[in-house]
Amino acid sequence: MKKSFLSKVLLTSAFLTYTSILFSQDIIRQQSCDGNLYQEEVDSLKKYYASEGYSVLREASMTMESEYEMPIVLPMTQGVWYQFIFIGDPTSRLYEVRMYDYTERQVVYKKNMWGDVDGNIISFNYVPQASEYHMIKPVQINKNKKKMCGYVMLLRKTS
User: For residue 45, with 0-12 CB atoms within 10 Å meaning exposed, 13-18 middle and 19 or more buried, which class applies?
Assistant: First the structure.
């Protein structure tokens, strides 16, 4: 009886210690920015892609930290045309977006530098080979700002 009680106490103690360590670590959480700094660009892109037969599935502004990826998990359907758009802070010097399929295989990689023609906007289309979740990881690097805003949109071809 004493062994059973003692083992339960030790097990509970170990569990609580592990749980407190687990929850004390920094976790990346997506937070929206105050206001939409990119509203003009967003409206222009929505208008353009609507004329190309796309409709917006998801969009969000997000607070980002320089040099840290912001993971976004999205369900995608096999054979459907998608358009993904990332808008970064115009003062950042590097912008990258990587997309991974469910098996964690990288299926898209795009990189823009500050002086590029596309500048702070990365856009690409994608047709999934299977209906599954995909992870998209945008990142931007800024020498002068630690925190900045980013904006993402996922559009789906409807016509």
Answer: buried
Nearest to 85 by CA among 52, 129, 115: 52
Q: What is the pLDDT of residues 2-40, one digit of tens each?
A: 556 555 554 555 444 444 444 444 544 556 777 677 888
- Alpha-carbon distances of 36 from 25, 152, 153, rounded to whole Å: 30, 12, 13
**Residues 41-48: contacts with CB under 8 Å, at least 24 apart:** 41/87, 41/121, 41/151, 42/87, 42/151, 42/153, 45/85, 45/121, 45/123, 45/153, 46/153
Q: What burial class does residue 73 get, using C-beta atoms within 10 Å of its C-beta: 0-12 exposed, 13-18 middle, 19+ buried?
A: exposed
Higher pLDDT, 159 or 129: 129
Structural domains in the chain plus CATH codes: 39-157 (2.60.120.380)
Is residue 109 within 8 A of residue 96, CB to CB? The reply is yes
Q: What is the pLDDT of residues 49-74, one digit of tens each?
A: 999 999 999 999 999 999 999 999 99
